[in-house]
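Figure 6 in text form: structure in, sequence out.
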């Protein structure tokens, strides 16, 4: 037995990829715009980012970041608890709180850290985290850090959730339910109105991770809770700056007075350096753009529907509903690698997702659509899928 035995299993899982010439992560040799890059020396359309509003190259965001780096330096070199709270961090927290109509807002260094911080600060030994079975890794890791009892309910199944809460009896009041707005792998939404109703009935608490739904859903772009009309019933909303806001960072907004204690209780907030000034500045600008330009959201949805309809028309098996995450189901690892490489050769980059990262043990070619895509780019993406002819025929999942 050795310390490193565990890596043998990982190496074995990597082997099919190595045998097919995929040795490491894809390297973006040059990023040209929000939707184009150079990979393997060739121009490609980026159809596998989370750049939903296409803001990574927004001139106002770039300008705000440039000013901040010149005026405030490259990094804060400290935790929010110590020297890392600049007035811009606090202003962004206030702006987020205001945008969501909440009393409290907190900014974290990443979306991953936001989940770790909130879950581990809100719950501990003796409490219960009742999470959707298809939750993101950051939610699972937050659960582990908390020391709370972890119970999973069936994906997007409010009846199953209710059954579990009923079994918990009085412990329901010590329970935090965690769901996502849009699920990152298949692009499906949580049935949030029903989930919120169940939560109210049993007196539990509810946290919604709007990582993929901020700027995407809701009339004002606040996410699924807004779209479903249940913001009042959601206790905590978590989100990220790394998707529709085009930067990096995470946040939580809430009206719950417990928020006052989170900066003192959340180790992932206390024991890591705060976001650099340029990131905070571009995020503040991106939030302004999100609010001021709802047409970006309309364009995103036009593109999402167009790609979903085209790929469905070509006979691909997709996620359950149209969404900016368009997930193409592929039967096995051989086929997913062949199709992914074929797409790249055709000048289209998508995400290849294989077990255990997929919800039901299948493989996915996960496209994410951006408001930055032109109709021609959407056409090229679907043509590249169509040209995977032989593979297309065999992509039917049993
Ligand atoms: C649902 C969900 N929550 C949290 C995160 C983590 O966000 P970040 O990458 O900004 O750390 C992700 C990232 O993909 C996500 O999909």
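Output sequence:
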């Amino acid at each position: 037995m050795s310390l490193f035995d565990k890596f043998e299993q990982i190496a074995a899982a990597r082997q099919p990829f190595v045998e097919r010439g995929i040795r490491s992560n894809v390297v973006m040799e040059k990023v040209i715009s929000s939707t184009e890059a150079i990979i393997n020396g060739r121009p490609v359309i980026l159809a596998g980012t989370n750049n939903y509003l296409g803001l990574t190259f927004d001139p106002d965001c770039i300008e705000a970041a440039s000013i901040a780096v010149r005026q405030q330096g490259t990094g804060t070199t400290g935790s929010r608890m110590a020297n890392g709270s600049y007035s811009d961090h606090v202003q962004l927290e206030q702006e987020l709180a205001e945008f969501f109509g909440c009393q409290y807002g907190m900014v974290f260094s990443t979306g991953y850290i936001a989940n770790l911080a909130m879950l581990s600060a809100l719950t501990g030994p003796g409490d219960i985290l009742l999470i959707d079975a298809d939750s993101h890794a950051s939610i699972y890791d937050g659960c582990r850090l908390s020391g709370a009892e972890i119970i999973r309910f069936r994906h997007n199944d409010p009846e199953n959730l209710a059954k579990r809460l009923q079994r918990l009896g009085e412990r329901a009041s010590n329970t935090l339910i965690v769901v996502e707005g849009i699920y990152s792998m298949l692009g499906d939404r949580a049935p949030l109105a029903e989930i919120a109703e169940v939560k109210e009935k049993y007196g539990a608490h509810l946290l919604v991770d709007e990582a993929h739904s901020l700027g995407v859903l809701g009339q004002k772009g606040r996410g699924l809770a807004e779209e479903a009309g249940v913001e009042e019933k959601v206790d905590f909303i978590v989100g990220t700056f790394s998707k529709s806001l085009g930067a990096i960072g995470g946040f939580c907004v809430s009206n719950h007075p417990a928020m006052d204690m989170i900066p003192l209780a959340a180790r992932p907030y206390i024991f890591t350096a705060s976001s650099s000034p340029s990131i905070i500045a571009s995020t503040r600008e991106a939030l302004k753009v999100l609010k001021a330009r709802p047409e970006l959201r309309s364009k995103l949805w036009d593109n999402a529907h167009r790609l979903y309809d085209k790929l469905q028309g070509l006979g691909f098996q997709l996620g359950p509903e149209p969404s900016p995450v368009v997930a193409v189901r592929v039967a096995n690892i051989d086929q997913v690698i062949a199709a992914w490489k074929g797409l790249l050769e055709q000048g289209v980059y998508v995400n290849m997702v294989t077990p255990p990262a997929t919800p039901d043990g299948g493989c996915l070619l996960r496209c994410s659509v951006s408001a930055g895509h032109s109709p021609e780019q959407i056409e090229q993406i679907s043509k590249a899928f169509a040209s995977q002819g032989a593979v297309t025929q065999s992509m039917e999942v049993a």
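Caption detail: The mean pLDDT is 95.
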